[in-house]
Amino acid sequence: MVEFKISMIFLYFMFILLIMMLFNSLFIEWEIYMNESLDFGFLMIFDWLSLTFLLFLLLISLSVVIYSKSYMFNDYFKSRFVILLSLFIISMIFLIISPNVLTLMLGWDGLGLVSFCLIAFYQNSKSLNASVITFMFNRVGDSFIYLMMYFFIIVNSMNFVFFDMFFFNQIPLVCLFLACMTKSAQMPFSVWLPLAMAAPTPVSSLVHSSTLVTSGVFLLIRFNDFYLHPNFLFEILFILTLMMSSVSACLEKDLKKIIALSTLSQLSLMLLMLMEGFMEVCFLHLLIHAVFKCLLFLCSGLIIHSFNGEQDIRYMGNFVSFYPILLCYLNISFLVLMGLPFLSAFYTKDFFLEIMNLNSYGNLLVMMSVYISILLTIVYSFGLMYKLNLFFFSYSSWVVIFKDSYIKFSLFLLLILSLFIGSLFMWMISLSLEFFCLSFYFKIVFYFFFMLGILLSYVNMKNLYFQSSMFIGEVLNMNYYMNIFFYNFYKFIEKGWAEVLIGPGIYKNYGVFTFFYSYSQANKLQFYLLLFIIMVMIYIYLNSLISV
């Protein structure tokens, strides 16, 4: 496969470049235009931050492209899909390596425009409405970037290296925050993220893992040196988004929307880490989340395909009998999402909570919101795992089994990364060996929330069936005689006389008239001759009556 060989060669060079630039930074500038007031050039930055994220972006993109080769095999527009997917990845690459506002807009606007085309790929009203809403919210973020460009024109340069000149002017920083909040779907810009699930599953996996929604978080990580003090208003918005997305995921019945809402909660968690000053931990959690969330979406896409396009989890069940390996991948990715000890996400979540517990100045509101979000994550994750693994009632009667080697390779690659990336990279961000001495109760609080989440997930599953049978209470208060009256009305009126006089009766009674009228529109000579004879006969008859 040519695409696979090209991708592997490119990944090999990216890995070598990452090793070379681990402790250095490389700026490459192509000067396009310059005068006395403004210079414009194409600037690229290669450092450990951009190269690491670029390496993971290419790995995830490789898995998604290989997965799409089989997933979109029967699609008529699969070549168009691959082109749009490639443009989507290229736009994200521009955003990663660009410390210049104008070149940044190539990637920023490219993500918005190509996402519009990808979400509307299936060309129906639902996809079109979702793509328009997504595009409009992205244009709101673009307006903040354009406003920020105005301040860069003041200093006669478009490079972010001059961002420190705005240290005493908070407006460019606020514009950057608001633009990143629109891309990362933070409150009040959270509407478009669940709607973006109208796109094909490979697009959803790429959008929610390492491209569109993570671009805002990456930009804030890139320029975190310019906002040393956390903003209380932004923290409140992130906490509200965290709570809203976690609660909504517990109540949602759509499989893809549950995973999308989990993405929203993880993005809020990353932004809270960043606001508290843990840039390295936030970046590591961004990489971990990109890998296991892509695995989650790819597995869910196969499940939805296997249940003949059904996305409602109430119609799913006992999938382990059909494809146990796929359920194993899905369960591991959910365990990573929950932060199970010694899996990848555990190293970032537990480290963040331990530091917050150690510091006497730690934000209690942030800490409690993170604990509650972990609890709710366990609730909807275990509920979904129970439905897919152990629940034996399903409406689906047609199950398609996927045994393609391309899909197996992409899922296995993401599984290996999801299991070991946290333990490997945690040593890289912890350059000094530090020991944390916490009390016993602080150490077991995570496990307490873990067990409580399993219990609440069982209660939530019971509540699901209770909500499905809420109409039973209304039936108990219905009047017997009123039921008899409406039954007779339906039987004798709606299905009786109404059928004769109103429904088919109108067609039968006026069929002759409509036939005569349609025949008159044919412009035939016989018709007009017959009409003339009839009029003459009527005239003779009326004239005879008058003469009498």
Using brief descriptors, characterize the structure shown.
extended; NU5C-like; NADH dehydrogenase (ubiquinone) activity; 72% helix; 548 residues; NADH:ubiquinone reductase (H(+)-translocating); two-stranded antiparallel sheet; mainly alpha
N-to-C series of helices and strands: HEEHHHHHHHHHHHHHHHHHHHHH
Work out the strand percent: under 5%
The radius of gyration is 31 Å
Mean pLDDT comes to 75
Reading side by side through the largest sheet, how are the strands ordered?
1-2
Structural class: mainly alpha
**Could you estimate the helical fraction of the residues in percent?**
over 70%
Kindly, what is the distance between the CA atoms of the first and last residues, rounded to a whole number of angstroms? 101 Å
Largest sheet, in brief, is: 2 strands, antiparallel
Low-confidence stretches: 470-474
Query: Helical stretch count?
Result: 22
- Secondary structure: number of strands: 2
Cα shape: extended
Describe the structure.
The structure is a single chain. The protein is mostly helical. Among the domains are: 229-477, no CATH class; 513-548. It has helices spanning 2-20, 48-71, 78-97, 101-119, 125-154, 171-183, 192-195, 201-209, 212-222, 232-251, 255-275, 279-306, 324-338, 344-358, 364-389, 405-429, 440-468, 471-476, 480-501, 504-509, 511-520, 525-547, and strands at residues 26-34, 39-46. The protein has a two-stranded antiparallel ribbon. Strand 1 and strand 2 (39-46) form a beta hairpin. The longest helix has 30 residues, at 125-154. It is extended, with a radius of gyration of 31 Å. Mean pLDDT is 75; it is low at 470-474.
